[in-house]
Specification:
Blueprint (H helix, E strand, L loop, with lengths): L1 H11 L5 H5 L4 H6 L1 H10 L1 H18 L17 H23 L3 H10 L2 E5 L5 H11 L9 E6 L4 H11 L9 E5 L1
Parallel strand pairs: 1-2, 2-3
Helix pairs in contact: 1-4, 4-5, 4-6, 5-7, 6-8
Length: 183
């Protein structure tokens, strides 16, 4: 059902604003309809770009003061809201990576870059998010680097992890700030 709904939304978004169509007014709403957004983006490049642009606007509205330091291990959240905000941001980044994995195209990538000044991945290297992150890193230029790239990879197979990291970082990006945690 979500696949068919995604196809409908992908075609309808050409004539109607994605916000009106899905009442996409908050990050939590975007996370609720995440599967629908992924199917929508997989069906049409213009829809994928429109969704990513809207997600970028939502990020600016809901995470205006989020800083890379808040994700460092040494940072101790002072209030429960800070922890909740960081966790919601992690889910938001995951959704954006899944959308990028649906349409790995320059226009969608550009919207992705605008949506995420802090890019993170928590999880194994054999996922759709990891594939999208690899595409993102491969297409980074020194002019559009994120504030921080945070990778937390469980050591399910160290050979796969090393191979993944070698594929991601084939050329030097001197200004890129990377936090890498292998567990």
């Amino acid at each position: 059902q979500e696949f068919l709904a995604g196809r409908y939304v992908a075609h309808a978004v050409v004539n109607q604003d994605i916000v009106e169509l899905l009442q996409l007014t908050s990050v939590s709403k975007a996370l609720e309809v995440g599967n629908l957004l992924q199917f929508t983006c997989g069906c049409d490049s213009r829809a994928a770009q429109a969704v990513m642009e809207k997600l970028s606007c939502l990020r600016l509205k809901e995470f205006p003061k989020l800083r890379a330091e808040q994700f460092e291990k040494s940072h101790v959240p002072t209030v429960k809201e800070d922890r909740t905000l960081r966790e919601m941001h992690r889910h938001f980044v995951s959704l954006c990576l899944k959308i990028l994995s649906e349409k790995q195209e320059p226009e969608v990538l550009q919207s992705f870059i605008q949506a995420l000044p802090i890019v993170m991945m928590d999880g194994p290297v054999n996922t759709r998010e990891a594939t999208a992150l690899n595409y993102y890193i491969q297409n980074l230029k020194s002019t559009n680097l994120p504030d921080r790239l945070i990778l937390s990879i469980p050591d399910t197979d160290s050979k796969d992890t090393v191979q993944y990291l070698q594929q991601c970082f084939t050329s030097p990006l001197a200004e890129l700030k990377v936090d890498l945690k292998l567990s």
